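From: lab user (bench 3)
To: helpdesk
Subject: output format question, protein + phosphoenolpyruvate

Hello, I'm new to running complex predictions and I'm not sure whether the block I got back is the full result or only part of it. Here's what I submitted:
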Amino acid sequence: MRKKIVAGNWKMNTVIAEGVELAKEVVKESASVPADVKLILGAPFVHLTSVAAVVGGTSVALSAQNCADEVKGAYTGEVSAKMLASVPVEYVILGHSERREYYGETNEKLVKKINLALAEKISPIYCVGEKLEEREAGKHFEVVAAQIKEVLFTLTAEQMKNVVIAYEPVWAIGTGKTATSEQAQEIHAFIRATLAEQFGELAQEISILYGGSCKPSNAKELFAQKDIDGGLIGGASLVASDFVAIAKSF
Ligand code: PEP
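Helpdesk reply: Thanks, we reran it on our side. This is the complete output you should expect:
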């Protein structure tokens, strides 16, 4: 059985007090979410310790939004996987399209980050997805296959068991445009088939989340698809009731 997951990506939003309040509301409302749905809050670095105090001892898990690609040392401004583990943090979002686009996140760097996170027992939520021009040129399968093969195919099966994948078409992120459930299912099935080339049956156990303008009104149809195991939620994760409503859409 694959894990059902609804993960929030708060991005660079909220100050600490607001983030703590949001986490408290999610924890309170999480009682109404089916027990087999994992809720994860992706908070900014400076919020992590405070939000950890809120979610500690509850079923809600904490995620960071990035980590360094080096172990430790003279890397001013960076936050290591070991630091995240000391919070503690259970997940880290890696390879988000905003980081690939604005911060030069390459597949090569992502291999290093994923290995460092896994070494600290932090599960990466590894993001893949094509840009609008790539979809329009019919290159989306090729682009996503490269993001999977160049990064995840370097892992052992033992490592892969602890990775979550998020398919996020870049043209759907924060734009209000959602992929249709057919478009999303088609590429989720493709991702699973690609994983199977390297990892065989294990591909059936990897959770693949959809991200891109997912909201209470469209989550049900998306989550009903065979290969969609939940969502990575940006904008709607900033409103506790919307985030929880999405988690109740399975
Ligand atoms: C995201 O950035 O991961 C995301 C899915 O954002 P939104 O839900 O706002 O489109």
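A quick orientation on your result: The first strand starts at residue 4 and ends at 9. Let us know if anything else is unclear.
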